[in-house]
Fold these 3 entries.
Entry 1:
Amino acid sequence: MSELDRPPGATPAAPRDWTYAPAPESRDVVRIAERYGHFVGGQWLEAAETYETISPSSEEPLALVGQGTEQDVDAAVGAARSAFANGWSALPGSERAKYLFRIARILQERSRELAVLESLNGGKPIKESRDVDLPLAAAHFFYYAGWADKLEYAFANRRPRPVGVAGQIIPWNFPLLMLAWKIAPALAAGNTVVLKPSHTTPLTALLFCDVLRQAELPPGVVNIVTGYGSTGAALVKHKDVDKIAFTGSTEVGKWIQSEVAGSGKRLTLELGGKAANIVFDDCALDQAVEGIVNGIYFNQGEVCCAGSRLFVQESIYEPLIAKLKRRLATLRVGDPLDKNTDVGAINSREQLEKIASLVQSGVDEGAEIYQPPCRLPEKGFWFAPTVFTNVAQSYRIAQEEIFGPVLSVLTFRTPEEAVEKANNTPYGLSAGVWTEKGSRILWMAQRLRAGVVWANTFNRFDPTSPFGGYKESGFGREGGRHGLEGYLRFDE
Ligand code: NDP
């Protein structure tokens, strides 16, 4: 019976099928070139070698992209040095701010195009690139534009000066947003930049070069060289780079730290994490379940601060797990360009294999696995949302960063036990606490060894708020006034 046929007063008939109709975002808003070179000194430098970048959701080739050589990196650093020396570093802060404001406005104006490209090349759901990545990337430029002419006030009596040429290496999980986190504070502080995006997700950084041209940013202030890890290594080793800012794996971060040791180069590292999301029995349970889902399934769990270890107070373990499993069954996994999709594609085959092997280790070590029934597309790289219960602290799934949609659930009885277990990790990037007691939130936040502690929320980002880690999660802060410090020297 349709709603129209229903006699007045009769109970509404439940629809037989609640599945969503496809709601694909149009790809037509983006033009992808067949081949890209490197963006050096405001010009496109022809790439001698190229590789193919693909869409992880369909494995469809998207474009040929330059594999940066030492010579390309050298040309980019030379262009950045000359832009630094010939005007940019001496420009009044209020003038630099104008460029940053322009970039922010253009990002807003072209956000649909950039969001579609981000989802196409990286696999993340369009509703996340549209509602999170793009607005936050623009917000970073707006925010740091505001600081550019106020550095003397931000660091009173310390005579802030730009560091020089910044080499910036970013990962694939938030390509454009990480670019904004890196470039906005560097330019606000008067530095010039050479940036290397991840080889799997170069396309939004390359489209960003067009944004820079539109903003009429002076040539050489921002240079982008694409390629694999070897391109990043050439940037790290280059003698005329004054600062390295890196976001990525702890392993590469350690290598970079040893490489720049003694060179006088400044360094900030934002590395991995294994965040504890701690749920107390007095929390708003349904809200906590939403926070847990957002904490680990947002961006397919490919998030350095993902809430990948869930600590549940024993007294609410059963109702919470039941609610969580029910909620998981409603997540829609599939086409990243579909506006209804909650969980998109895994970024690369390599990453998918890493996730699968860690999940297998969890099963082998004796944890209990749950995956809701969901049909994964045949082509592309996919992994179903996964929850592990019956997890011991020593299991690899409780120790190692999986960087995928995989949650390990552990329990605790007292706040002291929660703190001890949460801190039992080499990482220290983020944590979450769910409780209605303000005093308990403060008590926990004081004891958790994490750069960010969220209370009754998770994965909340704001350009005004510094972000960064302890221990093997790295050092230095991005965002906020603190985010400027890595790009300034002080003549005190
Ligand atoms: P990497 O650390 O290898 O990549 C991060 C960036 O560094 C990329 O641009 C990469 O280039 C570049 N790079 C790689 N090797 C070097 C090098 N020797 N010198 C300079 N730059 C280099 O991370 P992966 O992409 O390999 O991911 C592996 C794991 O790292 C993930 O499973 C996850 O656990 C973690 N990770 C953490 C991130 C975070 O935000 N903290 C982000 C990404 C990954 P290219 O991509 O072209 O190889």
Note: Residues 273-455 form a domain with the Aldehyde Dehydrogenase; Chain A, domain 2 fold (CATH 3.40.309.10).
Entry 2:
Amino acid sequence: MPNRLVNGEVWTDEQGEPIHAHGGHMLWYKGFYYWYGEDRRAENYVSCYRSADLFHWEFRSHILTVNTQTEPIRVRTDLRLSNEDGSKINLERPKVLYNELTRKFVLWAHYENGKDYRAAACAIATSDRPDEGFVYHGSFNPYGYMSRDCTLFQDDNGSAYFISAARDNADLHVYRLADDYLNVDRLIRKLWQGEYREAPAVFKRNGRYYMLSSFCTGWAPNQGKYAVADSMEGDWSLLHDFGDETTYDTQPAFVLKLSENEFLYVSDRWNAQEYDRSGYVILPIHFEAEKPVLRPFEHIQLEATTGVIHFQL
Ligand code: GAL
């Protein structure tokens, strides 16, 4: 892949193959960004790529497929990675954190049965390595709640949070995870009752927490919103507009922190007719005082000698 990316296109890996990592997440680990995301082709569910510069991506492996090894970690989780009739399930919006205590890479995703969206569950997998060897631990409803679009956020002290849409997407729940990240430990908040927020993405800047989200309109883009909090366990602000009325034809996947002052909004530009041809859009988040602002740029350019990323109209 060249040192220039066109926003909205299907980007390719070092082999020239399309990158299948939608609704995804990135983890910085030992010199590489690991990019995890949905891969709906053939027997795949989640694939992993890695890059040192965010431009040149090496395909690592299909980390969750219909054939992934399964292992229960508690009773009454559903371990099936395909349906009884042989059809595929759905694993959406996979996110991965590294747990310092257990030295495991822990993945959370949104589970559905692939036929309808009634299961509304979360699913967990773990591995000793960032890019292969994942074991699937099954899906469940946290405290019995519905759980759809989701994200993970790891705070500086290692506390981690799972945020997911509940009550048919009407409310957004914030759960604190257990120390091993393998279960929810506490339901912290039920945010924005009846506002139908989806595609949550959390980041921390100058000690404040920001949450981006979309409205609930399936594959069609809509007005992004953001909210701010002084603590992950405290009160969140009201929702304020972020980007334009279609968030520049995107839906949030996650926010990547490059440094204390540089944050990238990483998103999907869905192709509702041909899912595999959905594109990626990365935009810088500007701050006007404390307010996060998104502006559209067509190209992203890597300055190869310095690693600096430029955005161009
Ligand atoms: C979106 C959601 C996506 C996917 C899609 C299916 O609202 O954010 O992750 O579930 O609906 O229609």
Note: The first strand starts at residue 4 and ends at 6.
Entry 3:
Amino acid sequence: MESEYLSMPLTLAAPRLCIVRGVSTNFERCLRDVPCAIDVERARVQHRGYVELLREIADEVVELAPHADYPDSCYVEDVAVGINRYCVVTRPGAPSRRGEGASVESALACHYELARMSSPATLDGGDVMRAGQRFFVGRSARTNGAGIAFLAEVARRDGAEVIPVAVSRGLHLKSAATMLGERTVIIDPEVIEGAIFEAHGLRCVEAPESLGANVLALGAETIVSESAPETAALLREQGYSVRTVAVGELHKGDGALSCLSLRVSGRGLWSV
Ligand code: CIR
């Protein structure tokens, strides 16, 4: 059945629902590019601050219990990609993260029909940047061609399209590019070129720091990491209503703002 959403105009809005997962007791074992000490208690406190901010903005926040078996499971964005009617439950690129999705499914099943990805496909939600009915998807160390093809097929049935983007540096596409507004992307120009987005009618703003390229544009508010003060200042100058949040300890596990939640849109709306 073709999606009823095909003909529906979509507006960028604050999410109806955010799904988050508390920081694992084993968070110090999380995957990371640069080995460094992690203070799990500090990460927990920062995660609480992030969740409190989402509670001010989203209609509802569902908090899943921390999972001791999965040190990376607070980065909940990677395990699912909501489209319109469908949500793809991914097969994460890192073997140690496979299995995180199972406990997120029940929270998602009330809102979507689930489409589960299977081997050999891999895809991390951090590689998926939504711009209305267009999904830019990074082909990265975590997301392979079969993962992109699976998402593209579900998106096609659901009235959306997938545009693959080569990601040769950094962890995920959204480590270096996120939506700032309906037609504006903020990018880390050191990592990704804006041309692919401009070719699809989007305007690019260059973030002055790499951690500034991952923002959350939630309705009227733009959330920026406290670790990216120059980006916060630039966006304020440009008229955005910026809120900052301290997530430095969570950045140590190579995660940014978007990866800490799954945002579920309302009908006729889309959320980054
Ligand atoms: C990982 O390597 O999988 C985690 N330590 C970080 C995942 C960050 N996810 C995201 O940006 N979407």
Note: The radius of gyration is 17 Å.
